[in-house]
Specification:
CATH architecture of the largest domain: 3-Layer(aba) Sandwich
Number of strands: 11
CATH topology of the largest domain: Rossmann fold
Strand order of the largest sheet: 4-3-6-1-2-5
Distance between the termini: 20 Å
Largest sheet: 6 strands, antiparallel
Helix content: 10-25%
Number of domains: 2
Number of helices: 7
Radius of gyration: 17 Å
Strand content: 25-35%
CATH class of the largest domain: Alpha Beta
CATH superfamily of the largest domain: Nucleotide-binding domain of ferredoxin-NADP reductase (FNR) module
Length: 245
């Protein structure tokens, strides 16, 4: 673990915030989509956080939920510029492009703070060397929770936000809009096929399971570092709305 200095903090809502830290040379190079451990430096509480910054950037960025009685985020949400936190020096994880077979389109399907690894992926120029088109969907409860929306709107991707608890032009759960075909109609794209589409999933446990089961029922294969496939999700830890225990 390294002590890194907080260089910026942004609060999006009462529940979500992001922060950037320095990036020591001791931290090993990472691949877009990987995670590392975060701690406050004065106790044994550590949590896995996906790295939201691109591998080439000189800083590290993270995206977090706030849990008022959470062992870590009850304190982490109050960090300010100049504070120090612990950051793991060995990023790891399986939510990476290397675990996918070649394809035409890359779909990054996120809910809540599951957006974090995909921020790194769409900020990495290497992503666009491998795929002709990149689509990122982000589903949240309220419009205020559409963190990074302005940045994503300027990326060379198809950005598709959905909101579940407020009126919005693309309203509802992403799984429902996928099942109904609304996503494909809105984006003028054909339904998923194992030939052209590669899919990355990161969200709540229920969401991950639902989408994984649907894909497997249609002969999409989960990819690993030993056997790349048609879709991938992080198996080392589950990115979820609440803090992990």
């Amino acid at each position: 673990m390294n002590l890194e200095t907080v260089v910026s903090v942004r609060h999006y809502s009462d529940d979500l915030f992001s922060f950037q830290t320095t990036r020591s040379e001791d931290i090993r190079p990472f691949k877009a989509g990987q995670f590392t451990m975060i701690g406050m430096g004065d106790n044994d509480v550590l949590r896995a956080y996906s790295i939201a910054s691109a591998p080439s950037e000189p800083h590290l960025e993270f995206f977090s939920i706030k849990v008022q009685d959470g062992p870590l985020t009850s304190r982490l949400q109050h960090i300010r510029e100049g504070d120090q936190i612990e950051v793991g020096d060995r990023p790891a994880g399986t939510l990476i492009l290397d675990n996918l077979l070649p394809g035409k389109r890359l779909w990054c399907i996120a809910t809540g703070t599951g957006l974090a690894p995909f921020l790194s992926i769409v900020r990495d120029p290497a992503t666009f060397e491998r795929f002709e088109e990149v689509i990122l969907t982000h589903t949240v409860r309220t419009v205020q929770e559409l963190a990074f929306a302005e940045m994503l709107a300027t990326c060379p991707i198809r950005y598709y936000p959905t909101v579940t608890r407020e009126s919005f032009h693309t309203q509802g759960r992403i799984t429902e809009r996928l099942a109904s075909g609304a996503v494909f109609e809105d984006l003028s794209l054909p339904p998923w096929s194992v030939v052209d589409d590669r899919i990355m999933i990161c969200g709540s446990p229920a969401f991950n399971n639902e989408l994984r089961n649907d894909l497997q029922s249609r002969e999409f294969k989960h990819g690993t570092n030993r056997a790349p496939g048609h879709f991938v999700q992080e198996r080392a830890f589950v990115m979820q709305r609440g803090e992990q225990d």
